[in-house]
Amino acid sequence: MKMKILIPLLFLVLMAFLGCSKLKEDPKATLTPATYFQTQSDLDASVAAIYQQLVEDGAYAFDFHLYSYFGSDDLTADPNLAKGDQRSFDELNGSSGNGSIAHSQWGTPWAAIYQSNNVIQNYSKVVGDPAAINGAAGQAYFIRGWSYYMLVRTFGPVPVITTQVPADYRPARDSIATVYATVISDLQTAITLLPTSFPGAPGKATQNAARSLLADVYLTMATWPLNQASNYALAAAEADSVILSGQYTLVPDYGTVFTTNNNSESIFGLEFNVPGGNPDRFYGDCSMPWEEYGLDGNFGWEEFYPEINFYKAAPVCKRTDEEFYTTLKLIQPDKSFLLVPYNSVKTRNQHPFYRKFRSGVVNDGPIGCQETDSILFQMNPSTNKTNDVMRYPEVLLDYAEASDMAASGPTAQSYSAINLVRTRAGEPALTPGLSAIAFRDSVVFERAYELAAEWGARWFDIVRLQLLPQVVAARNPLENPISLGGNNIQTRYYCPIPIDEMLKNPQWTQNPGY
């Protein structure tokens, strides 16, 4: 279903009911604006419906949310298979007619925003426990802030809509600064409303999730396009508050992060449930080579993998071994497996893949890939793996960069934060005495590999630090060819607005270069 920007209230209420039913919630009474939002269960059901928008297969349950970020070096697509929606952005030649962008990267956050608006505008009608009411409202504020953050970093100026609107409403695109002001306001409000935890209810945004996200927002605002350097100190303060809370610790082994749910470093993630009809299809077949077949007859979908030189530049450490998959298992006629290196002429594209997205959560429902070092037993596209939106290492690295830039040089605490991540990776501590820029670049490099292919983290660093020329210059000749079509590379930091939205809003001007 294509989600349009303008959604009638009745549709929102019905979607709340449908989403909640799928999550086995129990919204009571008839669902109309006059009778809904009377009890806590009504409110909880509406919040559950917001999350439901995010975990649909055409939303954030697959890799659609990454497509416009394929211009980064941690993502590339097959040059021949039917991967045109990814490949066009990998070639820096994405189109406003890209259906995957319209549905997932545009439609999903807007659907969440409108349902969040519904909750925010009506939660005060509920009679009950103030803490429970505030906790539900805080989640709506958090998700609306996060959704606008995804939109403004992906598309640039977008309309800011914080109330219910009629179906024929045609808003102007607000400035980037206005969108960020809304994000900050929503997250600050969420912090005042949310508890530090929801015991027994993983997947709900918490106070420290809002603080973690706000730290990242401030860090981005300190760089391009706003370049408001005063926000470095604000980013450091928010990240430091999360660190000092002691609520999170790094999982000792990097690989275990991706085979467990809601572990000690998970700050906010989207929950999935295969039996409940919400499978996570980002793990498993999605990131496996097309030519790999399991003994069960299933094969890899090869939706994404890293560029060759991105892998080659990775630090020599344990994390690199756990992150990348470099020896392919090719099934033979006798059902044995031939093991070949990724750059063998026996492989289709001579590219490494991601190991960390192969299996999904261990001992909990269907597993993406069941294998040994030499045998592929089973391959599956559906798992129960939580897709972590924010992990504790991101907070540590945000703090390291922000505190460094705020103080015009790294502090002892800056070094401590990045070295926690490096130590877990199996790398030596960072060299003392670095300049502010050298230290920042070390943090950005660390983040590239700690968070590779996770929620566009690498792409957003490329955008805010204007790194695209350097990334393109380092590109291996075997990658898909860049196709700017005469456009300035500077125009490729933002995705084009989907064509359907441009047609519905003729007063808008398309992003430059599209």
Could you characterize the architecture of this molecule?
The protein is mainly α. It has a domain at 285-385. It contains 17 helices and eight strands. The strands form four sheets. The chain has a two-stranded antiparallel ribbon. The protein has a two-stranded antiparallel ribbon with strand order 2-5. A hairpin with a 4-residue loop joins strand 6 (369-371) and strand 7. The longest helix has 26 residues, at 130-155. The protein is globular, with a radius of gyration of 22 Å. The two termini are 25 Å apart. The model is unreliable at 1-34 (pLDDT under 50).
Shape: globular
Described by strand count, sense and barrel closure, the largest sheet is: 2 strands, antiparallel
The SS-based structural class is mainly alpha
The averaged pLDDT comes out at 92
The total count of strands amounts to: 8
Note the run of SSEs as H and E.
Answer: HHHHHHHHHEHHEEEEEEEHHHHHH
What's the helix count?
17
Q: Which stretches are poorly predicted, pLDDT < 50 over at least 5 residues?
A: 1-34
Fraction of residues in β-strands = 5-15%
Radius of gyration: 22 Å
| First and last CA, distance | 25 Å
Q: Strand order within the widest sheet?
A: 1-8
Q: Give the helix level as a range of percent.
A: 40-55%
